[in-house]
Write a structure and sequence with these properties.
Blueprint (H helix, E strand, L loop, with lengths): L3 H4 L1 H4 L13 H14 L11 H4 L2 H8 L5 H22 L7 H17 L8 H14 L4 H27 L5 H11 L3 H4 L1 H5 L5 H4 L2 H28 L6 H9 L3 H33 L3 H27 L9 H12 L1
């Protein structure tokens, strides 16, 4: 599927009209993140030979946080790199069709986080997770740390459900797919906005329906746009966990028609996010938040609303979803994650 389908939304949806800004130190960021990923064993050999190496996660981080401190943007880019390495592991054998294997991998990861150190000889995914968690959780409250862990567990459950679906040949219905995709698309990443900005959201704000609508809408836009970009690769390996495949199956459409429906759905969810954001000031008044809490909310909302366009721009420049040059490239990436 052509990325131009997604870019057409920039003409149709006003909030997407302006290209995302780029952090002024993005080139330094690129060198730092690449050195880190190679040094930790997440990327092996020439980065251009693997989807993870070609992803250019630092570019997405630099677009989402164009004004943040470089060290904080670097940390977010490392989390993105780790998440994509994890996804590559979960999307391919032997974990792709085994829910129990997904849970076993995650058990090792979560135990390492709670223990505070990786096991001797642990795979890069485990060792880097502990490193990232140590750096990120410093200074964050117990409530935030608990929320992050719950979202990691939600990601585990979503990926395990996808694995079971693959094993039994089940294509989710559109109603089943939306919440499943939200869980399997790294919900913990959105929690990282707060430590990057150096703020923390009021727990009672997060429990309101308005905030949930805003957060879910942005998450859906990112996930569904990603589905359009990755559909061809997933279809080639028989995976049906992307929205174009789900819509095509449910409505009896060909891939091109299904892609058009997905673009319309993406546009609608962006409108949902902005409507929810416009209603937030009234909700903040009702909650009687402090000046600091209101300021933190405003900063996080801005990042959330900027994320869809930043993600679109990243999809256009990332090589993650380019066609594989051969089986060796995929094998190399899988080995980098499983080592």
């Amino acid at each position: 599927m052509d990325i131009s389908l997604l870019l057409s939304t920039t003409d149709r949806v006003a909030p997407l009209a302006t290209p995302s800004a780029m952090h002024p130190e993005s080139w330094q960021l690129c060198a730092q993140v690449e050195t880190w990923a190679r040094g930790r064993g997440l990327v092996l050999g020439d980065p251009d030979t693997s989807p993870l190496g070609r992803a250019r996660c630092e570019r997405l981080a630099a677009r989402i946080f164009p004004d943040a401190e470089l060290a904080a943007v670097d940390l977010f880019a490392r989390w993105l790199t780790w998440t994509l390495a994890l996804d590559d592991t979960l999307d391919h054998p032997p974990l792709a069709d085994s829910g129990s294997a997904v849970h076993a991998l995650y058990d090792d990861l979560l135990r390492a986080m709670r223990r505070g150190h990786a096991r001797p000889g642990a795979r890069p995914l485990e060792a880097t997770l502990v490193e990232l968690w140590h750096t990120t959780s410093r200074g964050m409250s117990r409530d935030w740390r608990r929320r992050f862990m719950l979202h990691l567990e939600s990601h585990r459950d979503g990926c395990a459900e996808e694995a079971v679906n693959r094993r039994i040949g089940h294509t989710p219905s559109p109603a089943e797919f939306a919440p499943l995709r939200r869980r399997a698309c790294g919900p913990f990443l959105y929690d990282l906005i707060e430590p990057v900005l150096g703020v923390e959201l009021a727990p009672r704000l997060l429990r309101t329906p308005g905030w949930k609508t805003l957060a879910d809408s942005v998450a859906d836009v990112v996930a569904w746009a990603n589905d359009l970009a990755s559909h061809d690769l997933e279809a080639a390996r028989g995976d049906v966990h992307d929205l174009p495949a789900v819509i095509a199956r449910a409505d009896g459409l060909d891939p091109a028609a299904a892609a058009g429906v997905v673009v319309d759905l993406v546009a609608g969810r962006i409108e949902d996010a902005w409507k929810a954001a416009r209603r937030l000031p009234e909700m903040l008044d009702r909650l009687q938040l402090t000046v600091a809490q209101r300021a933190a909310s405003a900063q996080v909302v801005k990042v959330l609303l900027d994320t869809p366009r930043a993600h679109l721009d990243w999809l256009a420049e990332s090589g993650r979803y380019a066609s594989e040059t051969g089986p060796g490239a995929l094998r190399l990436d899988a080995l980098a994650s499983l080592r």
